[in-house]
Each structure stands twice: as structure tokens, then as C-alpha cells.
Amino acid sequence: MANVLIVYATDYGNTRKMAEAIASGAMSVPDTQVSLKLAEDVTTDDLIASDALIVGTPVHMGSPDWRVKKFIDTVCSRLWMKDSMVGKVGAIFATGSGYGNAGGGSELTMLALLNNLAELGMVLVPLPKNTPGYYLAGLQWGPYGRSAGEKMEQTGVTDERLEAATYHGANVSRIASVLKGHDLFAKPIPVLA
Ligand SMILES: Cc1cc2nc3c(=O)[nH]c(=O)nc-3n(C[C@H](O)[C@H](O)[C@H](O)COP(=O)(O)O)c2cc1C
């Protein structure tokens, strides 16, 4: 049984919608247990019990939401000290209104989260470009749900923009199942001749 933990923050529900789509994809993989949690409710025990962690955020001023950052800097950092997350599976997602042609900081936000998971020593899962729905709501870093239209009209994340998120959840879950129980990183580090 692989445990997939999805952690997110939201003000208007768009990031929750993406989190739920990811959860439904993860649950489609047999023998998977999925937990959805707001960033402020997550404990170190939740993280230790997980085999995969998927972190999602709305883009705020071109960077992750402060509640997600607080989760990283308080809960995750305690486990960074102990190497407790090393070798677990990590992935991310985001939503934004994408003001301007360059996506309003969406890539910077997603890379910031991936960087945090890399700091924890996690095995990162990208979003391949052949993922269904990628053309509409995909970046190589993970699913990106734009919650506004071309002229910034607030459409919310539409259903067709959830497809890539669903597949991402399934991918992460499958990879977590395959890797579960394997001690992936060499300990102690071998001395090279
Ligand atoms: C304070 C604030 C700052 C924002 N900054 C950005 C931004 O820099 N780039 C962007 O694309 N969207 C930005 N947005 C829009 C949100 O990312 C977008 O509406 C998102 O889908 C909201 O997610 P939620 O419904 O889960 O709260 C901002 C929204 C707020 C409230």
C-alpha cells in the first residue's frame, strides 16, 4: 500500500480543485491510500507516514503562497535535519491567473517548490509532454491550472484543465508503489577509488 499525501493552500478553491483531481488520479491506482491536507494542518507524522508528497500552491506575487512556504520552512525543515524524506517521491502543482504573456511567475513558483523537495532528497516526478491535457494545463514541472481567461476574466480552473492533474496523480502513485520499500540512496556513501 502506497501512501500519497497531497498538501496545498487555497483562497478561492482553484488549487483545491487541482488537488482533488490529483487525488482522484492517485486513487485510480490499486493499493493506494490518498490524504488531502491544507498546508497548515500537516504534521511531521503525516510526512513520515507518506511514500509520496505532492505540494500545490496558488501563485502569489510570482512565488508560492505563504502558508505553503511556512509548511516547508517549519514542518518539512524538521525532517530535512533528520533525512526522513530522502528517497520518498515528490511532485508539485500550481494554479495562477497568469497575468501577462509569461505566466505571471508560474514557472518560478513551481521551480521553487521542486527545489524545496530536492533539498529534502526526494525523487522528483516531472510531467511528460505526452500526458493527456498537457497542451492546455501542463508544464514539465507539473500540472498548471490557469484560473483566468485570455483577458483575465475569472473563469476558475475549468474541467478540461484538470485532466493533466489527474494523470499526474496517477503517475506519482504508480512510481511510489514501485519504489516503496527500496532503500534508494547508498548509505554510507562509497569511497571512490
Ligand atoms: C495576493 C495574490 C497574488 C497573486 N499573484 C499572482 C501572480 O503573481 N501570478 C499569477 O499568475 N497569479 C497571481 N494571483 C492569482 C492566483 O494565483 C490565482 O487566482 C489562483 O488560481 C488562486 O488560487 P486559489 O483559488 O486556490 O486561491 C494572485 C492572487 C492573489 C490573491
Q: Could you explain the architecture of this structure?
A:
With 193 residues, the chain is an alpha/beta fold. The chain has one domain (2-179): Rossmann fold (3-Layer(aba) Sandwich). 37% of the residues lie in helices and 22% in strands. The chain contains 6 helices and 8 strands; from the N terminus they run βαβαββαβαβαββα. The chain has helices spanning 14-27, 44-49, 66-82, 106-119, 134-137, 163-179, and strands spanning 2-8, 32-38, 52-60, 63-64, 89-96, 123-124, 138-139, 142-146. Strands 1, 2, 3, 4, 5, 6, 7 and 8 form an 8-stranded mixed β-sheet that branches. The longest helix is centred in the middle third of the chain and has 17 residues, at 66-82. It is globular. The model has no long low-confidence stretch (mean pLDDT 94). The chain binds flavin mononucleotide. Flavin mononucleotide binds at residues 10-15, 58-62, 95-99, 104-106, 147.
Say what the CATH topology is: Rossmann fold
Mean pLDDT: 94
What order do the helices and strands follow?
A: EHEHEEHEHEHEEH
List the ligand species.
flavin mononucleotide
Label the CATH architecture.
Answer: 3-Layer(aba) Sandwich
Distance between the termini: 40 Å
CATH class: Alpha Beta
Show unreliable segments. none
- Using only C-alpha atoms, the radius of gyration works out to 16 Å
Kindly give the count of domains.
1
Share of helical residues? 25-40%
Give me the secondary-structure category: alpha/beta
- Determine the strand fraction and express it as a percent band: 15-25%
Main pleated sheet: 8 strands, mixed
What do we call the CATH homologous superfamily?
A: Flavodoxin domain
What general outline do the C-alpha atoms trace? Answer: globular
Task: Please report the total strand number as a whole number.
Answer: 8
Give me the number of helical elements.
6
